[in-house]
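Teaching note: in complex prediction, the entire set of molecules is handled at once rather than each chain in isolation. The prompt given to students was simply: 'Predict the structure of this complex.' The entities are:
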Amino acid sequence: MDKTVLDVKNLRTEFRMRRYTVYAVNGISYDIHPGEIVGVVGESGCGKSVSQMSTLRLVPSPPAHIEGKAVYEGKAVYEGKDLLEPSNGEYLRSVRGGKIAMIFQEPMTSLNPVMKVGEQISEAIRLHMKLGASEARARTIELMKKVRIPDAEERYDSYPHEFSGGMCQRLMIAMAMSCDPDLLIADESTTALDVTIQAQILEMLRDVVRETQTALLIVTHNLGIVARYADKIYVMYAGGIVEYGRASDIFTAPSHAYTIGLLNSVPRLDDDKDRMLMPIEGFPPNLQSRPTGCAFIARCAQKLPECESRPEFPLRKVWEEHYSSCINDRLDRSLRKSDTLFEAKKLPDETLLEISGLSKEFPIKKGILFKKTVGNVHALNDVSLRIRRGETLGLVGESGCGKTTLARSILGLVSPTCGEILYQGTDLTKLDKKKTREMRREIQLIFQDPFASLDPRMSIGGIIGEPLVVHKLTSGKTEYLKRVEELFVMVGLDPSLRDRSPHELSGGQRQRVGIARALASEPSFLVCDEPVSALDVSVQAQILNLLERLQRELGLTYLFIAHDLSVVRHISDTIAVMYLGRIVEQGDWKTLCEKPVHPYTRALLSAVPIPDPEVERTRNIEAVKGDVPSVSRLPSGCSFHPRCPYAEAGCAAAVPELREIEPGHYVACPVAEAARAANTASGSS
Amino acid sequence: MTQYIVKKLFQALLVLLIVTFISYLIMELIPGDAVDFLLGLEATPEKAAALRASLNLDKPFVVRYFIWLGGLFRGDMGTSIFYNDSVANILVKKLLVTFRMGFAALIISTAVGISLGVVSAVNRGGFWDNLISFFANIGISIPAFWLGILFIILFAVKMKVLPVQGYTEPSADFWMHTRQMVMPVIVTAVGALSSMVRQTRSAVLETISQDYVRTAREKGLRERVILMKHVLRNALIPILTLLGMQVRVLFGGVVIVENIFAVPGMGRLLVNSVFNRDITVVQGCILIMGVVVIIANLLVDISYGFVDPRIREIKDVA
Amino acid sequence: MMKRGSFLRVLVSRWTVLLSLLLIALFVIAAVFAPLLMPYDPFAMDLPNRLAPPSLKHLLGCDLMGRDILSRIIYGARTSMMIAFVSIIIGGIAGILLGLVAGYFGGIADTFIMRLTDAMMAIPQIVLALGIGVALGRSTLNLMIAIGVSSVPAYIRMMRGQTVSTKNQMYVLAANVIGCRDSRVMYRHILPNSISPLIVTATINLGGAIMAEASLSYLGLGVPPEIPAWGTMVSDGFQYIETAPMLSIIPGLCIMLVVLAFNIFGDGLRDMLDPRVRGSL
Amino acid sequence: MKKLKRAISVLLALAMIAAVMTGCGGSGTTPTPASTAKPSAAAAKTPVYGGTLIVSQSTQQFEDNLYPPTAANADVLQNARPCLEPLLKIASDGTLIPFLVKEYKIENNGQKYTLILQQGVKFHDGTDFNAEAVKWNIEQTQAGKIQTVFNTVKSIDIIDNYTLVLNMASPDLFLLQTLATSLPVFMVSPTAVKTNGAEWAKTHPVGTGPFKLQSWDYGVKMVYVKNENYWGKDSNGNKLPYLDGITFKFIPENVTSTTAFKNGEIDVLRALTSNMITSLKSSSKVTIYDYAFLQLNIWYPTLVSGSKFQNLKVRQAISYALDIPTIIKSLFGPEFDSTNQVSYPGSPMYNKDIAGYKYDPQKAKQLLAEAGYPNGFDATIVAENTPENSLLCQTIQSYFKAVGINLTIDLADAARFAQSVMFSSWGDRLAVIPFTYTPDEIGSARRVLNPATTLFRSTVDFPEKYKGLVTNLFAATTADAAKKVYADMNKFLIDEACLLTPIYVKKYAVAQQSWVHGFGSGADGEKQIRYWSPETVWKEKR
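The expected output is the structure of the full assembly:
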């Protein structure tokens, strides 16, 4: 552990634009030893990615139009040579990709679409290892096998668009490992992937790294991942390191106000229901001004008087190998209970929405002039649901499971192939255009991407007020303005923002605008399609609390769609799990999370890392084999059987029925109980 | 892949049909017809009527169009009212002239255009970039005929280096042919060259900012290798699209340049025929121009298939 | 959009854009205040000093009918600008509407309009304009219609592409969700978000229109002879290119400068309105 | 395509009006060309063999038809002169020069003509040129209906292989003069036409001429090569033709052709415009033949009901408002002349005692006031879209403005002008219409100044008195009688009825390089520029 692979001494990166400078990284120092796994955690804009790029002098490729240039200061010593030294340029180039390799966030766009996949990998091998074409090809195929890419020989010559997201990321890992690097940097490498795939990739990465004694540096915003895999954790905020130390110390004794805020704002699978998420108020700092003093001071809930006056906050030793730049050593780490009693939420059994036998198929057409259908994408098959008034139904599933199609069918944006959707008795699928539009007042949608769902050309006030104009809900200007002001206040937005345009607001504020717009026509049913997954953790908590408050005050009913189980568990009353267009298990939140029956639900739950090293140490993940099959060629019978560890002959034959094994707990798997019994016997929770 | 080609072929034929209909419609709207012109004052009503009947000019517009179209399918493009000779054999000579000039201009504008575009994109904001972009901007702003006359005064009159006009078959006297072709080709090429530079530059800039270029750089490849293997291959797609459009721009340029430099090409014939109301010749010229432009676009579409694997197996998912 | 102040300050930061802005301003002032700026009446004939060389009295000399060239250039600015703007409006409005409909509704409307556009794009613009011009006869209005109509396909293609890409944006889906009718979605959401590429295409086409006027008058289709327009002046001046080169060279130069200015300004505007670039200027 | 090209096209269209030469016993004397060119020094030098003569003019517009019997276009036929030859040529002073016809006898007052043909002449396809061929050619011309020179020939008798007799239906003393000066009647090989058909003959002239047509690219280039066994000999017996070949090049763009001429790429440049002359004047010998061939007039739509131009005072006011001499002198080149009537100063038909209208704006204003338009009125003028017309109309516009008339100019391209002016009523507008003198003034007068033509029938109202004069013109048998009637017609049109206002007369201008000899003035003194003899042209070695 003594020999350091990479030693970075107060690295500083600034983007000198024509009229202003962005201070992306402000003097950070860290080092990494062979075989060690280091986690770098922070919210978007804290400079965690830029710092890694800077060590390899990879201009973080700002869009080509930006004429800014990256200026690096400080040293990044590798094998005794400072990579940042301009004179070492040639040496740096030989290190890049060879000795230090990186994996990026978007696997699909990181591969050259017009070049064979195998070629892109062997290109690096031939360059760094000076191997001939045939040896390079052999080595590439061997690497592809190592990262478990099925039938590697043939897939060598196929193109990136023929691979799924998960497969692409495996290719990137193969490419990175191709030259036996000393250091591998994974920059948000699993953020874009589904939870189960993310678990597979990280597990494989850890085994490979342990086996080859390569140092691994994981950059992520997900505390769970860092808790499970990292030995040492650096917490970054506004371009600087605010705290670092051993993983267990950071989680048990977080000693910086920001770290505490982070930990308290993240919902955990194992915390009790009435726990109140404690968001960090305000919004991320503006990097265009040179930071002085403590950058977190504006949002810090536990700041001391002298915090204002101190010029700078060096990292001081708080514990053995545990440093923090926060001067307040009596930080309150307790979690606060939510003041409202959730159990008290009694649900009247009046059904608001009843979906029965809903399926949807998108035909794949081929042919020149007269298109004939050659195949079908089975987005939804035979989905039935019941949502009571005031209830929050959580819908969980990975990409391609049909949750978005379900949401759009309810809103009438997509007309289902068969089945009916009864909303207070009326069947939405049978309404004509005019009636569907009127029904739009009743049912509204909250979008995932807060920025893309607001019209950039309109002012905030205009966006929120548009439903009022469309449905002529207010007569006269004054009443309109009053109602808009009311909506602003309702979602916690400052009314003075009325004339600003969307790009001037932060992520959280934009999502509040989306919610206000949805509430403008006083709907009683809200479909939330992944409302928080695009937000930073701290802001996520603000929105979740807002949604809960609105539900209590306005008696709203939510259909909450997400792929992050911990968020769904926190907010929903009942949860349904979907896989490839079918509901595989449904039940109230307690039974489903604690006593899951269906193998897929269990795999989903175990794939979600819990931000607590002790828990993660002991937990092993129920690995799920292979990749999600394509939606146009569904496997026969239970569509999960090819990947299910407990699959039996029967599974492939008949499509399992959703049966009620306990009051309110449905499951669509014949062997479910037996599998659970076997599993509990082997001692894992 | 073949399905993709066949689909594009069908589309091209349909568009070609519409092209001929549009040109016939425009010629129909133009008042006055060749007959009054031809017979002059001797036009006794019976003579005019007889000539009109023989040329089917008395039939309604739509019928005449379909007669012409029928003829086209049988390979006969009709006879010119003016030169009372079959349109095909009038056009064949003129076509070669225009194609030689147009093709030379296309080669120059593409080769020089793309290389300059890449150079200026690669050192973005640098000296070369500003210089090339400035001249490219001037290139697209100069009216072709004005430049033509400037060239004539400069090279032919003052410096007496190049012949002023005329056209000799390359077979007859190749050296004279090239000397005569220098000015017209350059004048035609200037406009096309400049727009090619500008478009290539933005296409390359767009590709440089993609993620896979960053991955290539992260792999430690030399800048030149990244440019050749990764950037250019991907920038080729938008550049190809532009190439399809260039053919149309060149035809426009040729029409003007042929008149200045007295090159007996199709452009000049077309303009004369429009003023002479020689409908069949106009149709012939526009048909050929349309065919060439559509074939150029078809070739571009097909070449997409080779350059970009994603387009190869198009599946239309509704 | 960015706050007003910084928009102009940033736009002017690049000297080429500044220069082109100046040239355009000069062109517009000359066009609008033509009557005040002209030293002589551009129509007044003064036969004795026919083809007089540039002199103090006549800064740029006189044309073949003894009329002062400088005044005719200034008046010509007005005609050329009028022709350019009106043909942009004709081409633009028709192009935008058709492109919007084709892009938004897709299906048969889209294929019909796009195949028609492909067909018109297969014919060079100068030939299209010539055909329409000859059909309508020689007058200023007909010239504008000829240039306008022949530039419609370019606008349709640009607008359709823009509509198709904007249509798939989330905020358009949101507009549907809150119950907007198709028409409202189009004019309230899709059109405003296509404004920036439209303005850029319009500025670049302004230059194109002036050049088209020049080329058409060379082919014999320009404005009525007595009305000074740059294109007609260049083509009329051809005959006397050896004896009085100024007759063609000056208007030709004016055309080039103005078209150049519009192109550079168009490029600058495009970089300005492109959100990715805005941050860096 | 340059606007000027269409100017030539209109002239040629109207040359067709001159194509039909009606009436008998026309005076047939050609206008006496007062050549302004210096007598060429060529006569002193001895002719040299070899070289190709490059002749260039603007692209001609018309039907490219070189088969004489059906060809309607004089200028196009001229281009066939190197390979086709007429029976007789005519000297500038009107005397006939024997050519393919060696001798001729005219008997009983023009009723009977005996023609004795040149012997040993062969067509290019090897067949003999004999009486039979001439008879066939004359019959074809009669059948072609385009040329009327042989209409009065009743019958043709073949006496022997080289003599034939024409019996005339009515006495015509000037048949041969008309034959030589009207639309050229060239001899074409009967066998060639019989085997390949008239259509083929249009593009493949087979004649007896000094050169053979090698290639012809419509509207671009015509290439002639030497006919080795040409029958002609020059005055001192050497074989003709001197040149190895003649090439016609059609260049639309004047600037291009003038520059090419100055660079020596072109030997002879025909149909010059005024600005071409000014640019050529400085550098090389420009011969302007005083052979006027076109006049431009403004005509008034007196027949159009309610038109202000029905009032004589208005027409006269307009005539007074235009200062034609200054316009011509300052705006147009040396090859233009002003005239106050349909004829022109140099012409024998010129009527000296026509007063005409001197430039007098005050009188014009006064006349307008009397006519009820004290502060003028709006009017439109329609003309063909050529650079000269555009220049002219703008000048007229400013002169009109001086007397209160504001004029809009409608320039129509050739086909639209033909359709809307020539062959139908041009409505309540002034129209700029040309009148051509080719081949002779009286013949043109009979056809054009005739109320019955499609041009005037529906728009111009000719008083009875004038119609009487026109019938006399047709009846006049002798040249002097026709001349007298023509003079009266002119007097009436201008001074009495003021039905038209003449503007300018245009002469035919040709530029010729110094090393070219025998092009304009033929060896035998024949000054005709339009009916040149290619066999005697030669080029100095350069």
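Point out the following to students. The beta strands of chain B are 316-317. The mean pLDDT of chain B is 81.
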